[in-house]
Structures are given as C-alpha cells and as structure tokens.
Predict the 3D structure of the following.
Amino acid sequence: MGLKTVLHDTHILEGAKIVDFGGWEMPLHYGSQIEEHHAVRRAAGMFDVSHMGVVDLTGDRAREFLQSLLANDVGRLKFPGKALYSCMLLHTGGVIDDLIVYHLSDTWFRMVVNAGTRDKDLAWIRAHAGPFAVSVVERRDLAMIAIQGPEAREKTSAILPPGQRSAALELRPFFGAEFDAWFIARTGYTGEDGFEVMLPAVDAAAAWNGLRAQGVKPAGLGARDTLRLEAGMNLYGNDMDEDHHPLESGLAWTVAFEPASRDFVGRQALEELRRADGCELVGLLLEERGVLRSHQKIVPAGEVTSGTFSPTLNRSIALARVPKSAAASVQVEIRGKLHTASIVKPPFVRHGKSLIPV
Amino acid sequence: MSNIPSDLRYTKSHEWVRSGQNGSAEIGISEHAQSALGDLVFVEVPEVGRTVQAGDACAVVESVKAASDVYSPVNGKVTASNTALASQPELLNQDPYGAGWMFRVQTTSPLAGASLMSAAEYAKYLADEAK
C-alpha cells in the first residue's frame, strides 16, 4: 500500500482513478483528464499536491545557507513573501531536485520539493545545514492544494474569512503570505494564474469541499502533466535528473552565476559545462498524427524527455534534448516509424492562449 | 463494475466481437479497456480489404497516457472501418459498444473456433485480473 494524503478519502468519493506516483496513491483523473485540463485553462481546477514536501529552514544564517545550497540566488529575494524557483545540484552539476523557496523572513525560508525526491532532498539538506546552524523541519502537518485557472483566485478568496479576501486577491505573482494558519502563494505549475495553498491537514477536506461548492473542478495528475507541458515547465525525473545539468535542461535562467563570488554546490562543474557545446532542451510540435512520448529517439540525434497530446492545441507536443546545432525540424521515431516535428520555443500555451503557430 | 453486454464475445486483450449475418463480425474495445486507457486522442483503424489473422495487431488506440495495439479476434478480410474515429476518437470513450465500433471483418473461419469468451467469462476474467 502506498502513502495517502489527508484528502485520499475525498478523492475516492469523487470517483478518482488512483495511481502510484513516487510511492503515493494519487488521483490520475476523476473521469476525464481532458475535461479537467480545459477547466483549468478556461475556469478553475484544483489539485491535491499534499504529497509534495514542505520544508522550513530557520536560523540566523538561513539565507547564507541557501545561497550555498541552491543554484539560484536567494539574495534576489528582497521582500518577505517572495518566491524563487531553483535547482539543487550535485557537485557534478546534476540536478538533485527542482524546488520553490519562499522568503518568509530573514531567518525563515520555506522550500517545496518534489514528492519522489523528498527523502534524498532532506538527507542532502541536513548534511549541508550543520555548519550554518540552520534548523530543518519537514512540515508533515500541512496539506497543499493548488487552485489554478482564470477564476482560481476569485473562487479561492470566496472560501476565506471576509477580512482576508482582499489581501489574498492583492497578492502579486510569485508572492505568498500567511493568513492565520494558512499560507497562500500566487504560484503554480499550469501556466495559468492561481494559488497554491498550504494549510493544516485537518482543514484540508473542508477547504476542498468549499472550493468544490464554488465550482472549482477537481483535477488529477494527468491534467497536471498536460498543463505543465503546455506551459513549458520541466518535470523532475523526465526533463532533468542527477545525470543532466540545468544548462542542458532549459534551466540556465535559474542558475545565478552572478555575483561571481557566490560559491554554490555545483558551480565549479557548471562553469566548465557552460563553455562546452553540449545539448539543449527544446520544444517540439509534431507535424503529423500521433503522440510524442518520453524516451522516443530523435533523428539525427537526441531524445524526447516529456511528450504528450496537448488538449489546447489539439496536437502532440514535447520537450526534447537535442544537440545545440539541431536544425529547425527533426524526425522522431514513434512506434518504429519516423515522423516530422518542428522545434519551437516553449511555452506552448500561457493564460489560455496558444503561443505557437499551429 | 464495467458494462459487459451479454450478446457480445470478448478476448483476453479486451476486444469485443459482435456476430452479424453470413459470417460478418464487428469489432471494438470493451468498456473496461477504454476506461483503463483514459481519454483517447488518436485512433488508427485498418484499411478496408486488408486480410487479418486472429491475433494480428491491426489497429491502434492512443490515449493521453499511452498507445495500445488492437488485435483482430478473428480471421478474415476487413470490409469496413469506422472512419468517424479519426476526427472523434472520444466516441470510443463515450460509446465503446456502439458509435465507437472500430472495424468489420468478413470471417473465413467459424467464430466458434476462435478462443473468445462469453460475457460471463469475460466478467470473471476482469475480476481475476483485478486481484
């Protein structure tokens, strides 16, 4: 039996099809993942993401610790509440995990890490925290619900106490704030506006049902994957992992080489890799019928890292790792046959609109 | 429990067969199969005139999640295929035993000889598979 989130019984009552995801029993869909996808693009959907790891880092030297631990620079976080996306690297430059870190105060930062990597992440973080006297506490007492879509913020604010509604609606993109025991952030993994809410596990079912009553549609991991891929967002384990560094994974923008004096884990390896020819992560749009899937081979060279059918574009799209010299179009081997795909710049879809010519 | 019409026969790979007049057979995939696959986004049906042997992979159903082969349950020649599925693959999800039929075969050997299950046998087979 796998691990279950506090909302598991709620999902079963909703008729969810449950699958194993990194050791967790999670909803794949509640009937139709394509309908759930469209609900997020057009109105509002919600995902139980309580399987993700919430880790609080506290101490006078918490910022200094994270500046050494993460490839992106938390020195960029000037205002409390602001979030930063970063990779955590091995000394080889390989990616241990990708994560979001929130700056709650100068002595308190909160990280959200992937479910499948939380144990190794925590071991790595604890192994490096000692010299900085930073306390590392996993917040297993919190559940997390992501509410996403053009109507997500409005519908979420409707379940808050009246005195908190306007403050929640005023949160700027990539900022979060505490609302009593709830932490609400204007972040997400879909390419739509919305919130990610961390709340006491005991509140989760009531919040979920309250959102349901507002017309927010439950959505599973299936829709989460098609949404994030349309939004051009990486999935750990597919698009980057310990054997692939950020510079060949479309994540060079998350590596802060400046200031040059900041010595983060993996920096030395990346300094050499950034001068090499190597590979890059690109978007693919399949020009023919069929569906791109991870691990399909690319001719002349490369591999699909994540592929799917895009419900918004009604075409198949993918992220793929190819040599930097790749032509404008490539061939992908699908079930023994070669199919033409164009190289495009992700994201494919943002805020409900296609960003590439189809 | 999934819908298993009693007038059809079934394969272990989750196709159904509807026997028609004079050795004609209509073929599709079961309610259980479409549910397991999830939302279908592409369907490839066999060309009319193609000769098929029982067990031949002759069609493909592709969902958001995965691609799967569909096997002919019978020997014979394809006489029709459901071209509506090219533009409306969701018919397979919505009505797997009706509008979601996939192809028809003029059989060259009796269906009785094929290793097909009755509805009751298929229901038991699904129950055993779920254990």
About this structure: Chain A has a mean pLDDT of 96. The domain at 277-358 of chain A is CATH 2.40.30.110 (Elongation Factor Tu (Ef-tu); domain 3). Chain A touches chain B through 16 residues (CB under 8 Å). DSSP finds nine helices and 21 strands in chain A.
